[in-house]
Amino acid sequence: MKSAYHHNIPSEDPELTHVDKGKPMGELLRRYWQPVALSSELAELPRKVRILCEDLVLFRDGDGKVGCLDAHCAHRGASLEFGRVEPDGIRCCLHGWKYTTAGQCIDMPCEAEGFCARQDVWQPSYPVQEFGGLVFIYMGPPEQMPLLPMYDIIDPSRTGVEVRGMRLWEDHSIGFVRDCNWLQHYENVVDPWHLLILHNMISGDQFGSVITEGEEIDISFETTDLGVRYRFVKPLPNGNTLERYTECIMPNIFLVSNIHEDGSVPKDKDKCTEVSWAVPVDNTHLYGISLVAWPLEDGKPVEGWKPGTDTMTNIRPGNLRDRPYEEKQRKPDDMEAQESQRPIVVHALERLTPSDKGVSMVRQQLRRGLAAIAAGEDPPNIVRDPGENRAIPTSAWNTIYPPTSAEAAE
Ligand code: FES
Ligand SMILES: [Fe+2]
Hints:
single chain, 20 strands, 4-stranded antiparallel sheet, Naphthalene 1,2-dioxygenase Alpha Subunit, Chain A, domain 1, Rieske Iron-sulfur Protein, alpha+beta
């Protein structure tokens, strides 16, 4: 027997889990454009966001330009989330200082004429760009700013789809996991075994698909040009065979191929339809947000189409936060499993096994990214050349082989 009396709990691994500015992982994540809101969420009111332990305020001015400013007014600290959006900037509620989207203070109504111009006050700000209905900000060193990578799923040259920014409502994230460190949610993407246990054996089939059922499953892990993926192969009861790949793109993008696959129709490389980000709010919270390639028919969005992972259009009961506690105990889902690993999972207490290989590989690759920055190099997946920023190939898809397929037998 091992008594729990004075059971020693070591601290978490700050190198991989802490995202404050100045911390290694915080600096790594700041080297990439991070999605902070849907474009549609910026209307006449400002919007407060917390990301990587920083409080920021987004607003859209009269020209449609989006600003991302430090939340606390440079005068005496009132939050600009209570400011008034005006055609040429945002005006602080307390004494009316007004800032442009670039952060320049252009009005101090309580001061004498000419005072504001002489002071040359700038509210700290971050660069902003919008793409596909999402607002992205870059929080890293200005001289290191990369391009927003155009992965094949969302590439503007792609025909037959419309790229849409999507998430669940305010309190939730795609996947609905929220109150824990970002890494335990991210690593879950390359943990295929939990599909079989949590989402089937323990809680019953939570996806309504062939993915979580069955035996004779062959699971392996491999590195890709962009990160890590798992391969999951299994014969289906109907005689077809499923081959599934799901990928983590370093450092915090993930591609989950359709979890609702029913396996009835043979298909070759049915690619993941979303590029999703696990974005740390701080060290113990995250949100998920996605660019979804929504199919078009005759140039119009296909109505009733459902993205392959969980979004607002596609909610499963286990995703609801306010389920009765006993129901959560009887049928836990990702939220219960991941948030209960502790607010920040303690790596020193884990016993990683061969089935956790995907998790180990993600951590290894993240550490390589940290080492690259420490050596003054670019971390992985930094794109700077516009000529190369086209339809970057990703590697997450489902293939359904018919019974006669020779490949399926391999
Ligand atoms: S605190 Fe913002 S204008 Fe005074
Ligand atoms: Fe899951």
